[in-house]
Amino acid sequence: MNIERKYITIRELVKNYEDNGEGGVFGYDKKLNIRPPYQREFVYDSDKRNAVIDTVKQGFPLNTMYWAVRDDGGYEIIDGQQRTVSICQYVIGDFSIDNGIYFHSLQSQEEKDKILDYKLMVYFCEGTTSERLKWFEIINIAGETLTPQELKNATFSGTWVSDAKKYFCKQGGAAYQKGKDYVSGRANRAEILETAIKWIKSDNQSIREYMGANQHNDNAEEIWKYFCDIIEWIESVFTKQRSAMKTVDWGALYKEFKDKSFDTNKIEEETSKLILDDDVTKNNGIYPYILTRDEKYLKIRAFSPKQKQKAYEQQDGKCVHCTEHFEITKMEGDHILPWKDGGATEQKNCQMLCIACNRS
Asked: Would residue 266 count as lying in a domain?
């Protein structure tokens, strides 16, 4: 890859700037594609955005930007999209800084010219598409600016990713609105898309393998429909929304239980009871437990060292099953009346078993 350093003024950068939403974002007299398919959405908050403008106004240097030179003579941003959009939006009047100061309301043409004549240091990178994507990945790994899924979006950019981002990567967009009560993560950092891929991919398939297999599909309607099906299934089984639901692996549960029927009233009654149970230490495990009946999901509260020591002394260090004597380190606390039968994690329900007896 050939790399050449140049200086571009803000005046040149913002010439004929356009933000067409899904149609793309362009600047530099429409020759620069500011948001090519492998780029993420705009994620700067107001503080970061304002800091960029303040840096420019003070005449301090911004970090280097990288543009790829395309075969058609145009350019696309490899690194620097967030700073570029911040600058362009300020100059065209999309936001103000310093308590209402817009670009057009600056007091003098001299102040405006100081911003417009500010020089950005840009490295123009010329090479193949794969070289540009590799360079994009290297830059962003080094700077730790992208989430793992954003990097995968760059690596597998194409028609599928572009359409998937439309559904899953818009803050407040379709996937967020549909699944906000059941999915954690930031839409504009591709974290909801990552969850959706984990849900739909086969068990022996990685996210990268799934994306590679679908990279050139015309659209992402399949994963969007699958995502919607899961959300609707959750709401049909668990009728009351709770915050713990956001960290459940709903994809695995849907695959196993989507065709089974449930009594939603009994499920809600049991869910409420388990939430109030002090021995249940993992509330998001309640949902897989109700479907699978596997207590491992609940992480039932263990007996404390003090409780186990007291039971050990009362038993003279002997396992209540095999009656052999053991050091306390070779024994485990066990519920006399199992938790599932109503036995609480309290002193009177504690007995000490040797490891072999307890685990058999």
From this structure: no
d(CA 131, CA 144): 20
Mean pLDDT of the 307-313 span: 96
- Look at residues 123, 35, 131, 30 and name the one whose alpha carbon lies nearest to residue 76: 35
Q: Which residues pair with 121 in a beta bridge?
A: 7
Tens-digit pLDDT profile for residues 22-36: 678 999 999 999 987
112 lies in a domain?
yes
Amino acid at 78: I
In three-state secondary structure terms, 179 is: helix
The count of structural domains within the chain is: 2
Q: Which helix (H) or strand (E) element contains residue 353?
A: strand 350-354
Domain boundary among 106, 122, 146: 146
| Residue 317: CATH number of its domain | 3.40.1800.10
Q: Could you tell me if residue 230 is inside a domain?
A: no
Work out the burial of residue 105: count CB atoms within 10 Å of its CB; fewer than 13 is exposed, 13-18 middle, 19 or more buried: exposed
How high is the pLDDT of residue 303? 94
Bridge partners (DSSP) listed for residue 32: 27, 75
Q: What is the DSSP letter of 2?
A: E
What range defines the domain where residue 340 resides?
A: 305-359
| Residue burial 39-49, b: 16+ Cβ < 10 Å; e: rest | bbbbbbeeeeb
Q: Is 288 helix (H, G, I), strand (E, B) or coil?
A: helix
Distance between CA atoms of residues 339 and 293, nearest Å: 13
Q: Which of residues 117, 146, 175 is at a domain's end?
A: 146
With beta carbons less than 8 A apart as the criterion, state whether 14 and 87 touch: yes
CA 352 to CA 171: how far, in whole Å? 53
